[in-house]
Amino acid sequence: MTYIGDSRGAAQARYFAGRERHRTHDHNGRAIRANGQDHAYGIDRGTPETDDYKVSALAAITCNLRDRDREFAESMIRQYNRKRRLSPKQWPFIDRLIMTATNGYPEAATENVGDFTGVIALMGRAAKNLRHPKIRLQDAQGRPVVLSVAGARAKQPGTVNVTDGRPYGENEWYGRVNKDGTWTPSRVALHDDTIGELLASVAADPAGTAARHGKLTGNCCFCNRGLDDARSTKVGYGPTCARNFGLPWGNAS
User: Fold this and answer.
1) Residue 149, strand partner residues
2) What is the pLDDT at residue 109?
3) Do the Cβ atoms of 214 and 237 come closer than 8 Å?
4) What integer is the mean pLDDT of 156-177?
5) Residue 242: which H helix or E strand, with range?
6) I want to staple 27 with a disulfide (CB 3.0 to 4.6 A). Which of 45, 155, 201, 218 is the partner?
7) Contacts of 99 (CB under 8 A, 6+ apart)
8) Which residues in 221-237 are b (16+ Cβ under 10 Å) and which e?
9) Helix %, strand %, coil % for the chain, to 5?
10) Strand ranges inside the chain, DSSP E
11) Is 241 helix (H, G, I), strand (E, B) or coil?
12) Neighbours of 85 (CB within 10 A)
C-alpha cells in the first residue's frame, strides 16, 4: 500500500510511529541495535510496509526542498509507486532528502574564484553546435570535475554547475559558479579547496587549463575522447571541439 495522497500530518504520524517497530537490519544490510533504534531517521527498509513509510514521509515534505532536490525526490517517488521498489543506491538519497527537508539547508558559504564570463561565453558558443556542452577537467586529487551551464528552466539559469560528471541522480553536485566568479560549494565540497583552486585556474586561463588537462590525461577536455596527435595534446582538445567552441587549435612545437 502507499500513502502518497495522505495529509502531511497523517504521513508524518505513520513515519514516526514506525520508529517503534522492531527491525533487525537496515537498508544496507547492517544489523541495527537490539533496542530497536535505527540508522536512517526513523524507518529502516526491509518490508514493503516500512518502505511505504519512508517514501510516504518524503512525499509529505518535498515542498521543503529546493527545485533540483524536489524533482529528484519526486522522480524516485514516482518510480517507487510504479515498481514498488528502489535500488540499494537510491535509498540513501531518500534518507538524505528526508533529513534536508526536515532540518533545512545550511547557509551557503561563498568565495570568488575569478570572472567566469569568458568560460560561460565559451560554452555559449559551443551551444550553437552541441546540445549540452561541457568542460571536463580533473582536480589535484585526480577526481573528475565537469562544468556545464544551467539551462533556461533551471533555478539559476546561466550559472555554471560543477559536478563529478556522472548522470543526473547519480552524480555528486559540487556547487555552482556565477558569471562574476562567485563560487557556492555544496555540502560535499564545502571544505574542499582543490575544486575552488581548479575553478580559479579555469577562470584565469581557460586555454592553459585545457592544455594541462590534455597533457595530464591524454583526453579532450570537452568531449573526453583520446587525443591522438601532438597538436591536440598540446592544446588539450581536438580539431572538432576547437571548431565547436570557437578556439584555435594551435601548432605543434
Assistant:
1) 160
2) 78
3) yes
4) 92
5) helix 239-245
6) 45
7) 41
8) bbbeeebeeebbbbbbb
9) 45, 10, 45
10) 111-112, 135-138, 144-149, 160-163, 173-177, 182-185
11) helix
12) 11
Query: Which residue reads 516500512 in cell numbers?
Result: 50
- Using CB atoms within 10 Å of the CB of residue 43, give its burial: 0 to 12 exposed, 13 to 18 middle, 19+ buried: buried
CA dist 151 and 147 (Å) reads: 13
pLDDT digit string, tens, across residues 191-238? 788 999 999 999 999 878 887 888 889 999 999 999 988 888 888 888
Residue 98, Cβ density class (10 Å: 0-12 exposed, 13-18 middle, ≥19 buried): buried
How far is the C-alpha of 169 from the C-alpha of 81, rounded, in Å?
A: 18
* Element of type H or E holding 114: none
Whether the Cβ atoms of residue 126 and residue 222 lie closer than 8 Å to each other: yes
In the numeric block, which cell numbers belong to residue 98? 528526508
CA torsion 242-247-251-253 (nearest 10°) is: -110
Q: Is pLDDT larger for residue 188 or for residue 9?
A: 188
- Among all chains, which residue has been given the C-alpha cell 560561460? 120
Q: What is the mean pLDDT of the chain?
A: 80
DSSP 14-57: HHHHGGGS--SB-TTSPBPPTTS--SSTT---SSHHHHHHHHHH
DSSP per position, 194-216: HHHHHHHHHHH-HHHHHHHHHHH
